Amino acid sequence: MDRRQFLKLSAALGATLAWGCASVQPSSSGWRERRDLYPQGVASGDPDFNSALLWTRRPYTDGRDGATLLVEVAEDPAFTRVVATASARVQAASDWTSRVLVADLQPAREYWYRFVDEEGNGSRIGRTLTSPAHDDARPARFAFVSCQNICEGAQNAYRKMIFEDERAAPGERIGFVLHLGDFIYEVVQVPSQVKNGHRYDRVITFPITFEHGKAVAKNRFTVPGSLDDYRALYHAYLQDPDIQDARARFPFVAMWDNHEFSWQGWQSIQEFGAGLEPAQTLKVAANQAWFEYQPARVSPPGASLDTFAAPHVVDAPVTTFDDDGLGQEPNNLAAIDSLIAYRALRWGRHIDLLLTDQRSFRSRDPGSRDEINPLFEGDTLGFVPETLARQLDGGRDYADGHPPATLSFGDKHIPNYRAKEAAQTMLGAKQKTWFLERLRSAQGTWKIWGNSLGTPDWRVDPQHLPPTLAKWPNEDFAVMATGDWGATYHERAEIFDTVRDAGITGFAIVSGDRHSFWAGYAAKALPPAAFEPVGVTFVTGSISAPGTVEANEHNVKQDDPLRPLYLASPGGGPSQATINLLLRHGVRSALEYAKRGDRTKAYAVRNPDMAPHLAFVDMGGHGYSTVRVDATTMVTEFVCIPRPIARSPGTDGGPLRYRVRHEIALWQAGERPQMRQSVVEGDAGLSV
């Protein structure tokens, strides 16, 4: 790009342009660090090979509407070699945040940056990186994370990540952190909503106050009611020292999940168990706050250097949907189009990164509708028959256009309310077209799909339950959960068929949301259907949000006959997560281990047809994951830490539970990928 093109780009991103200097010189800003005046620190995001997007917040309380900062970018942390400077505005209308696009940088370089106000009061110093040029063949490495909750846990995973990266060889350091959503949790609790001050093992804290919040979910939680409430979340989260330090060290590439807007929200609609609530004003507010606080290369309509230019919308019922489930109410369309976050980035020769938005354009989850409830009256297992899940997902497209007239579970039957509706979509028509076109045209060695929701099936085999525990009505497999890609069979198959038919190799999926670690193969179907993997798929554990194992420890009673499926203490020892065996190896393996505590015997009775798509499951894992790629190999490591209840006092983030490596050689078109697994450190327990 030339200077004129960068000017256009910076204007589209709502960013000041800082142009690289022809001459390199020492700083003359008189900077002196005043972190208290920049309480949310600094950040950079979405780097490319010749520019970086920088961010800070400098609030003023003296009644002014705006101020001017100086940004400096240098080749060294002492700022003796400053290569770019610019004046950047901060305004009350943008909550005093600043976005600066620094252009004319060198590829694959390390830079330092800082902001200075008119009196010489400076931000902390940040570090960022530019990507390698598109033909740069050197290996590339990044981390991916999701689900951090400052009210319920500590962000020790970031401290561990920083500690290890600072000690890594320069060629093995992390290039960027891919944050796959739930950067904030918009559901908070006030003291009156917390019994005994705890949730599971966690002491609940109250660092966030909503001026316009409202109680939801039978007064279990409080959620934002305004733009200022969403901003209050970012104010608090970015004062967490470990989140702030991570953003100061690494460029972040961010995609939202649900909690950046609403817990069970989709499009601009909220659900809290009492029907659908139109929330167009809050969707726009959530998008605006995300834009203000995430330095991402996304362009809101009518963007300027001063404000988000939020469209005027009202909260109107969304009652009419097109054939893809997209609500046609004008305010709904304006709200979800107020910020388009799906995008693609390139990192050297080996990474084409495609980021998709799973919340703004999806159709309603067909399994969340009230019509389904009569089928599960009196059910104690909580599993959904796989055939039923496929019928719900496929709608009129099920069985090549031959859906059943009724939906059944055991001896219960209801009319098939999905029989005339289109198959579920997670991406929506427009985004899916963009995604498939970009996937077909990707030139990087590895085509990495970053999305907030996991793709592996949540499959279980309750047909093997002993009659003394429960009776499953048929020989059908079941799914433990719906609502993400694991039960979005039709659209997932469309994507995976595109990979197969286009002869795409190096296809890998990285995701979050499940608060657990998963590794395996990307396949549209499991036995008895043909199992034909077209890529590999990984889910990272949460940074700090509680997971299933912790919930089970508190919610599944000791005398519950089904407890051995989820937890067991063979020989009176510590509790172990048999749910990992249940998902990876089947009912018989979980029950055998719960009875005798012998892994060999548990594996001997595994169900080989249940989960050939899985190589690893840890439903209690917290931490982060890293990916290293080169011309021939992809290596994904799970870095699991102990349950992050309290902040680690040291600089290393505390001990490790385990480090597990998954190595995949690049395969040829028509071949199946092969994954080789090794436990590098610690004990992965029942996860393999």
TrEMBL record:
<feature type="domain" description="Phospholipase D N-terminal">
    <location>
        <begin position="40"/>
        <end position="130"/>
    </location>
</feature>
<dbReference type="Pfam" id="PF09423">
    <property type="entry name" value="PhoD"/>
</dbReference>
<dbReference type="InterPro" id="IPR029052">
    <property type="entry name" value="Metallo-depent_PP-like"/>
</dbReference>
<dbReference type="InterPro" id="IPR052900">
    <property type="entry name" value="Phospholipid_Metab_Enz"/>
</dbReference>
<keyword id="KW-0732">Signal</keyword>
<dbReference type="InterPro" id="IPR038607">
    <property type="entry name" value="PhoD-like_sf"/>
</dbReference>
<dbReference type="InterPro" id="IPR032093">
    <property type="entry name" value="PhoD_N"/>
</dbReference>
<protein>
    <submittedName>
        <fullName>Alkaline phosphatase</fullName>
    </submittedName>
</protein>
<dbReference type="InterPro" id="IPR018946">
    <property type="entry name" value="PhoD-like_MPP"/>
</dbReference>
<dbReference type="InterPro" id="IPR019546">
    <property type="entry name" value="TAT_signal_bac_arc"/>
</dbReference>
<feature type="domain" description="PhoD-like phosphatase metallophosphatase">
    <location>
        <begin position="142"/>
        <end position="558"/>
    </location>
</feature>
<dbReference type="InterPro" id="IPR006311">
    <property type="entry name" value="TAT_signal"/>
</dbReference>
<dbReference type="Pfam" id="PF16655">
    <property type="entry name" value="PhoD_N"/>
</dbReference>
